[in-house]
Amino acid sequence: MSFLKLRTDAALKKNKTVRSSMPYKQAVNMGIIFTVEDKQKHDDIKDFIHRLEQEGKKVTVLEFLPEKKDNYEFKFDFFTIKELSFWGNINSDAANAFAEKVFDYLYYIDRESNPLILNLLARSKAHFRIGRFNDNEQQYFELMIEQNSSNRDLINSMYNYTSKLR
What DSSP letter does each residue of 20-37 carry, written as one string? Predict the structure, then answer.
């Protein structure tokens, strides 16, 4: 994992993507990335996707699937720890394509930090990245939400703040 951290730090420095927020109503391409936890989180994220799609947003989702966790419905693209090389490279076509995609907004929906997802956020071409507040991760986000209760509350807070952007 130390090589992954080195690669992540290098990606943060090298990534020259212009970060900016656009009015929520104009945003079209939305990304959602998260770590699989349980059926409840899966359902909460499906509800969030449905809400965004009802507003005419195009939503792309990527999940990190930890060992011994169920991939509910196999509905989303995913990657696993097995796709991390010794040298800290993520060898997943789905993950690498996600990092290259230009999103208007990219939501990172985890309450606990995931170093593999942070690597993708560092490499991301997204214009506006939203995540849960963590003092040590400010360089990965344009907007951080202080939310310590459920995943559903985190999602709702993220939506409430971003949908008001003008």
Answer: ----GGG--EEEEEEE--
Considering only CA atoms, which of 80, 66, 12 is closest in space to residue 36?
66
- Order of all β-strands in the sheet with 129-132: 77-79, 58-64, 29-35, 105-108, 129-132, 143-145
The pair of three-digit structure tokens given for residue 25, joined into one six-digit string: 């109503």
Tokens of 91: 């060898």
What pLDDT, in 10s, does the model give residues 16-44? 999 998 999 999 999 999 999 999 999 99
Question: Angle 115-123/2-14 helices, nearest 10 degrees?
Answer: 20
Which residues neighbour 7 within 8 Å (Cβ) at sequence distance 6 or greater? 87, 88, 89, 119
CATH class name, domain 2-14+27-162: alpha beta
Q: What is the mean pLDDT of residues 78-99?
A: 97
| Coil/strand/helix, residue 127 | coil
pLDDT given for residue 73 in this prediction = 85
Per-domain boundaries in the chain = 2-14+27-162
Pick from 145, 162, 163: nearest CA to 154: 145
Unique residue bearing structure tokens 């796709």 = 83
